[in-house]
Write a structure and sequence with these properties.
This protein folds into three domains: 4-164 and 381-475, FAD/NAD(P)-binding domain (3-Layer(bba) Sandwich), CATH 3.50.50; 170-236 and 318-375, 3-Layer(bba) Sandwich (FAD/NAD(P)-binding domain); 257-316, no CATH class. Strands 8-14-9-10-11-12-13 form a seven-stranded mixed beta sheet. It has 476 residues and is an alpha/beta fold. Helix 1 (17-27) packs across helix 13 (445-475). Helix content is 34%, strand content 18%.
Length: 476
Amino acid sequence: MADQTQLPTIAIIGGGFTGAAVALHLAERFAPDQVRIIVFEPRERLGTGLAYDTADPVHRINVPAARMSIYPDEPEDFSRWLGETDALKDDPQAFTAGGVPFPRRQAFGLYITARLAPFVASGAVEHWRTTAVEANQIDGVWSVRTADGRQLQAIGVVLAVSHPAPSLPTSLQAIENHPGLVPDATKPDALAKVPPDARVLVVGNGLTAADVIASLKERGHRGTILSISRRGLRSRGHPPDEQSVTLDLISTPSERASHLLHRVRQAVREANAAGLTWHPVLDAVRAQGQAIWKRLPVSERRRIARHIRPFWDVHRFRIAPQVEKALDDAVAEGSLTVKAASVRSVETSHDAIRVTLKERGKTEATVQDFDTVIVTTGPAHGSILQSQPLLASLAAKGRLALCPTGLGLLCDRESRALATTGGADDTLLIAGPLARGTFGELMGLPQVSEHALFIAGKAANLIETHRLHSRKRQVH
């Protein structure tokens, strides 16, 4: 057995789905005595990350199980695992009326952990339960320091870090320390302190808001819920049946956001005229998303991120049928109201939180009292470089920069980090959704899975190059 400390080493920062998938695909390419693959992840299990490290039974994957897989060329691998393990035996609500499974997110996390487990057990993948806090590169070799004081030498670093936490909106900072404020609904047990009869304000209307509302209902919440966002757009659900359209947006690509939007709207009108919904049109756009994004100038990407993204998100990121039903039932019974509104100001009044709301299209603001305010505005991507010590350290050295689209970290089409000087670094790779400013459609699991395989190939090239140079040095 080779001396582990002398093997070419790849350091993967983050062990959620992306980091676990990169590690798995890389481990499949090399024998354990050829390379050292180390994943820095403080959680107990690899593969869960923020998305799948949840025990809440309401939290479900938001696409059918048959489209979820760690292997891009085996899209039904998760479905097979569900059958092999009988993982849905205690989850009768996983199936839609048509028999399509939407399992709990925890089940998908267990699946990723299971697929990676043999590599961890054999030592092909090492799981360091800690965080990386600093990285320096000297003479082409990275030195990574961890929070628990360990040091690692690596030939390449893969940044597979999670999204930053939401930032508290300025309008809510006056109640920053109020016990009725839930500033980050994604934290475990964030909703445990919400009383059953609480008057709840949910700031945000996306996927997280849908999960929050469904979870509150599952917990027996009886109070009123007002969910607001600037446009009042609720996350949409899935179509009643499978549909498809023929839509080519690549042969003659759009180079302006307005032109692209016009073509998509026209395609939706044509689909409606043919008796179809908007769903297959958006699916076709998503399938061509990275090619479409590649042809758009940065200025147009920024325009999409600022003006069109809210509309895209609510149609692209659909909620599971079980969650959609919970929200529809709440609206029907009158306990949930969704509005296009924003918070103007907040103050405490006796035991309540008094909120001044400005509804879209109305001139007069209204004042309403709540017991609980829950923030679900999504990750604060603008503060990603300050969200973790390692990223802040790399940014301070000029090795990392924000993407001008505001969607993550700056990298090139090879997913190599771009320094503030503009140079690409073969040894520092950006994996997963934080590279979407460059790649476009890189949030859905199928695309993230494909990108993880792509990153594993880049890391494998680093290893092969290192081994080739090592053999040449031995000859001379």
